[in-house]
What we know:
By secondary structure, the protein is of the alpha/beta class. Helices cover 38% and strands 15% of the residues.
Amino acid sequence: xxxxxxxxxxxxxxxxxxxxxxEGAADSYGKGPSIWDTxxxxxxxxxxxxxxxTACDFYHQYQSDIRLxxxxxxxxxRFSISWPxxxxxxxxxxxxxxxxxxxxxxxxxxxNGLVPYVTLxxxxxxxxxxxxxxxxxxxxxxxFNEFTTLCAxxxxxxxxxxxxxxxxxxxxxxxxxxxxxxxxxxxxxSFFSAVHHAAIAQADGGRILRSEVPGANIGTxxxxxxxxxxxxxxxxxxxxxxxxxxxxxxxxxxxxxxGYPETDWDVMEKFTIQHSTWRHTGRLSxxxxxxxxxNYFPITVKYNPFVPILQAWEVKAKSRKKPHTAxxxxxNADSFYNIIKQFAAYPNIKNIMITENGAACHDKLTGNCxxxxxxxxYFRLYLGAxxxxxxEGINVTGYMAWTLMDNFEWAEGFNARFxxxxxxxxxxxxxxxxxxxxFQEFLKS
Length: 445
Ligand code: GAL
């Protein structure tokens, strides 16, 4: 049976959350609207018309929620600062109540012996900046640097661990290419300009933190998915390679000073040729202290000439009769092992932390219990794979479970439950699930 102590005494165990998904108080206490506040008001964008206005009411319940993190036995609490809560217009006037709130959250962590890991950008762009073009506009970099400087100067004496961006591929692809996440922009031109400005932001953010926060431990978090060709045919293998450029290589390679993955992907090359300055990789790279990796599923792809750009599409786990979570995401701990190894093979990565991993299940609250045995099994398998990676000598130093409690799961609304703690969204009653108790025992072991 796997034990936390197998990972060694210095391994860091944490749980991750994000502002929009839990805070609520979306239009109170001086907070400005974020793109998620406006996007969720557009009809048909979020399942069942849900919106993050109240979410888990963490804004009012942060003290008991942070105590819950301690009760479960974690040492790290990863949360994000809502940009429009501290800068309601994205730049300019500062909201003192917002600044106070994160001081309170940080102080509560420290009082409970938890180490705060702060994410600067977990997808809640101030709506005022979206009106200027959001991540597609060059001006976003100036505004992001102002936000980063404010956070670093305000909290840097208490917070030493920082994550600049959460999954830049996630918010640029879902929000600026496919339009299924906020702000709902579509098309390749907006996607690639959002990508470029996000790539600049991740490196600029690192540099600002380095100069403003003495002793800072600076990382940024990438989504990653092993990409598997459906067959070994040349067409499927090439399709998988294009998907890999898009899903796995697009942000880490510029961050490491390697530029964009254009040689293996002609569409990317077309954009870098059009914008020759994108090849000036100096501003895109930063010497991160750690790389955050977030993995949920592998992806199997098949050549498909009718799909524009990629000429490839995913063959879903369900149709391949593979085990999957309530999101339809394939459960496959070997693929977790493979993709972490793929990233670990890049030169110059000093340290890897798993900054998110977890599963959505069809949880049912019965009395005071949630018997989520599937989630327990998921964590067992994935932690087993992680241990193997660590034992092979890869410098993985921490693991953060996604997530503390059921929350606002973006376009899925409150319909997908990922928490170790069940949340009743009507009463805001928290109930520790069996997986939460499992982690509590595991972390004691
Ligand atoms: C990640 C995201 C989290 C959470 C998780 C589960 O991509 O960073 O905020 O939603 O997926 O879907």
